[in-house]
Write a structure and sequence with these properties.
The structure holds two protein chains of two kinds. Chain A contains ten helices and ten strands. Chain A is an alpha/beta fold. Chain B is mostly helical. Chain B folds into two domains: 42 residues, no CATH class; 223 residues, Orthogonal Bundle (MetI-like fold). The chains are: A alpha/beta, B mainly alpha. At the A-B interface, helix 3, strand 6 and helix 4 of A face helix 11 and helix 12 of B.
Chain lengths: 260, 361
Amino acid sequence: MNFELKDKTETEKQLLNEPIIKITDMHKWYGDFHVLKGINLEVRKKERIIICGPSGSGKSTMIRCINRLEEHQRGEIIVDGTKLTNDIKNIDKIRAEVGMVFQHFNLFPHLTILENLTLGPTWVRKTSKKEAEETAMYYLEKVHIAEQAQKYPGQISGGQQQRVAIARSLCMSPKIMLFDEPTSALDPEMIKEVLDVMIELAREGMTMIVVSHEMAFARSVAHRVLFMNSGQILEENSPEEFFNNPQHERTKLFLDQILH
Amino acid sequence: MEESQYIEELRPPLTSGGIIGWVKLNLFNGVFNSILTISTICLLWKVIPPLVQWTFIDSIWNSTAAQCKAADGACWSIIPSNIRFIMFGFYPYESQWRPLLAMILFAILIIFSRNRNHWKKSLGYAWIAGVFFMGLLLRGGVLGLTSVESSQWGGLPLTLILSVFGMVAAYPLGIVLSLGRRSQLPVIKSFCIVYIELIRGVPLISVLFMSSFMFPLFLPEGVAIDKILRAQVAIILFFAAYIAEAVRGGLQAVSQGQYEGADSLGLNYYQKMRLVILPQALRIVIPPTVNILITAFKDTSLVVIIALYDVLMSTKTVLSNPQWMGFSTEAYIFVALIYFAFCFPMSKYSQRLEKELDTTR
């Protein structure tokens, strides 16, 4: 696959902004198991970060901590100026600003595509039904799926479902988008249609954190590639450096495995 | 390669061999099945003709009790002769049109509510008005209707009141209990667990007993709560515990991803449950829930134990009349048919609802 993103250098200039996400020495345990061991990460507005690494390395757990689907036990996470604590009000507020796309889509099967998209805006943002539907149709157009608006998620393909899931997040006009292995559950034929939508999103300057093993995608879209191994960020570099000149043995081994 | 695109689409092979083929395939495929088929036919041959003879051919449909005693077949006369007492119990004879009208009103509302397209706010108001009007009819005391104490209510209206209010109130209460049982807050959680396990651990009869005989002892002097209301509350509290457990199964069956999907949109707990989780969970548990509701409907007959005259008790009373003694089979068959007439449509309707709510097809 070959992707192009011409405005990459231009957005790079804007990376000098204040960080929109700031993670400092974050630790997490599942019972006695130390999953995340001191994560430090700053993400700036409009920055696009790809996280890769072997399974069980804590990639998903880390991005799930950002909208508190998982709770961290030590350290600090600040998202858009708000510190993540147990305060439910804060959590719901942050979740509304941070869109998330899951490996298994997690669309609501009892609602139509359109209802899936309008649910968040009408109940969380309190926008009128008409306005929410207009926004929904705008984003459905954008992910090239408007004609399916009245169908149920169970009636469309996996690739289409994932594009709907992206549109659902976008309807909340989030400041940050998190993608948790968005193409891993898809048939090979459908991966491109989802990646195309994500590239489109990148082009518009969305702040994105993507857990993915789509290396061609990473190469063309990412500002930074993070390599995680056993709960730590082992390596962090620009895509060119990361792929052409990996520093750690573990990274080299991993890249050998997935690039064949 | 080129040719493979033009393979003709074939129809599936025919499997039928006419009636004989079907019989061979389904009734006589093997020695064991053949023996089973033949013995079943023999059994039916023994049972069906006498049953038909008793039920229809030799039966008497409209006669006095004396004529019945002489007959060989079923004495269905017991039903028309006592229908008003079976249906309405000790409700004053000249006012029995009132519960009848109330039941007709109820039937109309039920039939209208079957269609999901009618589920709007206006239907809710219609139900509230309907229930109010039905209560007015039963109780009287205004608009020139004579007042009828609830101690005189009986028969089918009482069965319907106890079961319908029981089901309608137990269902939401059960949902709240099941959510409470999964709550993060220890106090709420343990209260719900204790409640559910306690109620499930005792028979309905004992709960009815307590509500009827023990509960009044704790009330201050001069305060009396209506007996039917106490039985009603007991039934609601009892079946809520069962519904709670059925719903809990549904909540567990909804995948974690659905909870996370709702969370990631920023929906709060109540929105998440109401809009995302419960609609799915409740659909999943339609079969066990309807099972409980049907059980609840039939178990209201246990109120005989606290001397309420529901439709089963009023039938028993008819049978204790010396004139009609000995025709219990006929009377009980009739009551059984009444129960069936309510329970079977409930079951059928739940199946329809399950299909309609299935969004995967």
